[in-house]
Amino acid sequence: CLQTEKILHLKSHRGRKVRVVREHYLRERVPCYSSLCQADCENDGKVLPGDLTHYVVPDVGVVVDFLEILEFRELQGVVFTQTACQAVQHCKGRRQYNRLRNLIKDPRHDCVLFANEFQEYSYCPREKGESQEKWQTRCVYSAAVWYHNHLAGMKDVVMITEDQDAVAEYSSLNAGVYVISDFLQNFWPELQPAHELYSSISQALQEKESESSQKEYTEHLPAEILEAGIKSGRYIKGTLNINKHHDEASIMTEGLSNKNNDPSWAVLVCGNKNRNRAVHGDTVVVELLPKSEWRGKVTALSEGEEKSGEDNESKPMPTGRVVGILQRNWRDYVVTFPPRDGTQSQSRNSQRILAVPWDRRIPKIRISTQQADALQDHRVVVRIDSWESTSLYPNGHSVRVLGRAGEMETEVQTILIENCIHVPPFSDAQLREMPVNSPEKPWRMDPVQVAERRDLRETHLVFSIDPRGCEDVDDTLSVRSIAGGKLLELGVHIADVTHFVAEGSLTDLEARIRSTTYYLADRRYDMLPAVLSADLCSLLGGVDRYAMSVMWELDAQTLAVNKVWYGRTVIRSSYQLHYELAQALLNGEPAEVPELARLEPEEKDAKLAELNQALETLTHVARHLRAQRDRGGALELEGVEVRAQLDEQRNITALVPRQPLEVHETVAECMIYANHWVARKIQETFPHQALLRRHPPPRQEFFNQLVESAKAMGFTIDTRTNKALADSLDRAVDPQDPLVNKMLRMMATTAMSQALYFSTGLESQDQFYHYGLALDRYTHFTSPIRRYADIVVHRLLTAAIAVERGADSGRAIASNKELEELAQHINSKNRAAQRAQKLSTVLFQCLYFKERDPQTDPQCVADAIVYSIRNNGLLVYIPEYGVKGPVYLKNREGQVVAAGEDGSCEWQSGSLRHYSDRISTTSSCGTSTFRLCDHITVRISVRSTSSHADSLNLEIISNKPHRSAEPQQPHSQGRSQLVQEVVRQAEEAQQQAQEKAARRPKLSREEREFSQSKTPNLYSLLEEVRELALMDLDTAARVCVTSASY
Length: 1046
Ligand SMILES: [Zn+2]
Known about the structure:
By secondary structure, the protein is an alpha+beta fold. It has five domains: 2-190, 5'-nuclease (Rossmann fold); 223-302 and 312-409, CATH 2.40.50.690; 428-640, no CATH class; 662-848, no CATH class; 852-958, CATH 2.40.50.140. It is 32% helix and 24% strand. It has 26 helices and 41 strands. Strand 33 (873-878) and strand 34 form a beta hairpin. The longest helix is centred in the C-terminal third of the chain and has 35 residues, at 816-850. The N and C termini lie far apart (80 Å). The protein binds zinc ion (ZN). The site of zinc ion has 6 residues, from loops. GO terms for molecular function: enzyme binding; exoribonuclease II activity; RNA binding.
């Protein structure tokens, strides 16, 4: 090793100058990470392939300014120099630096890091008087030359730069090493999106140079002062959270005491100046204002708001101003380019446009573009570059165009991007990892695997019970009598996904990033490629499959657990039953089992008797398990209510309310049991690093509204324990109106906290409790096809089994910290999935009603039930469409809704009085009172804005129930028609657009690119559970896409 001293004069991204002296060690051997290496470098991890035409070494300027372009996966063979990486860290800050590090780590990208400044022969000391920029360029060039020589001249090396001087100086010095600018033009002329991004970034850079210097905001304080201030208690650190409905900002302070987002821990920040350039989601530091300047929150009912907070008066609360930002949490934003009105500023060829983000919580973003005219009324993905104190708005650049606002495809993509959901088609490299199963090359089990597994094919009657026509069967069951009838053996057999998905493989990485299958109103995006999810990991009838099994030996009399076995198995499911069929068999009704259709009567009867016996035993066991949990206080809340029924073309023909079939509960109970026992196993083996799922008890004050509403209707709801709550909800039934109980359960659901994944090392064991299921430990094991948590749990279980056998678990399992980070990631992806699902539901509802004239179309008038009273209106639920929303009783002109004798409503001048259980309006017509659980008639229309999502507008037209006298079809019929109708319209529109497209340049080139499977959806399912999934979606997912029965 050679030691030398390196002196750096750095300018931080906050503009301060620092002089840094570093001891600098030079080595002869620094890994090159090329598969062509002739020198035995220690190239651990990712290496650049040898079959590329050249390697690319970007200079400092390119890495600093155009990193986003280097992120395109098409750009292969990129070598990042240490010089460039350090420059990014110093000029762009931690966020951009992390982005670069993640890019280098990401195995899906062909790029590596070369520690050029530690390499004896590539390092060049800075010369006296040499500018930092010149020196850096020389370092990068020297690195490029080293590469070429190190690989014995086998690979051309291209240094790319934006600096024409560098091109002139270096381009012809060394054969095989080229220095060029215009690299996109030269090497990737076809990569149109990268070119567009390039010009948009260049534009933004030029604009930045011509910024004015007038201050709009106070400067942020330096990091040291912020840290010291936080320590001393002078400042408060937290995350800026902007209210969706009121443009009101608050700081959610971090800390143990604030797990439930207790609003009393928030600090209010009023107005843009006090917000001081912080954007929703940023980690900021605030200083409290004097008490005399404290303010209260806005609490009136406003559009789309559902959750009821505290009471209505708004007490003054701690109020402050932002003095610094610790971390920017900017993401990609969808904006809309406003219609051109000629008032926007213009400079040179470009125009600076204030684009309006789709998310109302984000400030307008200033974009420089030459395409302002073409882009008006289009949705565009943008990134924020900076927000200087001299600039009223943040500056950004456009990344890509999604399409015209209001078109279905544009809006769906918008929803995905706004929730940070990236679901590109699976890449070829990922698919190459997958097993093949084709008619020419059918997949077969590996004899080695079969020998290692417990083979249940001959010994166990295995079967599945799913919705009709289910394709992805991830769970099967078995039950049999053993030990001469003294014991029962219950088995749950789950698809062995981890056999096919190796940890750390590209498929694993992609599944981890997605974390879940995403269900939208008209499509789904799978977590795993179809060859697994619909084929080799689907436990179909009559085929050999690998499984992960849990098998219990139960005492035949008491059903006490005698022994539990966990392990890998081979199964062949004998029956693929659907719920109705299984229930019919149980009820002794005549039913045709397809698997038995061709047998002789005698054999058929014998097999049928065997199957019946199994189903009966299963029901018996499940009843017992359920009763056990009920004694513990398990809750039956408002869960999955409907499921989709499809015809052969996989169109939704109906959304059918869940039949109250006991067999459904039976299957769910077995899955809950398996999840519970797997949770016990992994937690006992790895007490500090097991992935479990907990459901914290709700905060009592969130129940206030439920308790009061119930009281007003003559019911008592006891919320002291989950058991008391469950029992009192069961009793709160109005025989006249079944919706009343549904409403109460809906309110109870809203009051609940979310169930969450966590690592057991983080919490004490009393925090593991699952409140909704009344179990001391719980996890997810039964759906590895569509939930990444289950994949993690399968691996933990495999490791636990290995430990039990005395073997080393084979590899180190994830640490508590890694697991906790993963749990947080999965939790956040699950929330994103729920939000996207909800937004897509609203999107389809709006698209449906947008086509209709609310004044004349009978579809726009519906019955609604009041489920909450607010101080200026009602929150109602429309069963026919599954819509929830506000109905105002007072308008901006101060008029109130007055009901005539026939119930019809109109606006009149008058006054309004609000009580806990009712609200009254008084006008010259008299007094009208609206109570909880009243049925009213509403008119549905669409409130359209070009920049944001459309929303539904509900207007009361009568205080009497809607006269749809004829008995209602299954409630959700309307919703299925709704999705179908909208999809049909969109397809027609698209067809027309395609015909037109021949005549004009395409803008929405990327349309449909993301769409993988357009399988109709389950939106209805998860829609109902979205608030929280107390049944943990085990049941929800089972209710998968089904074929038409009638
Ligand atoms: Zn090497």
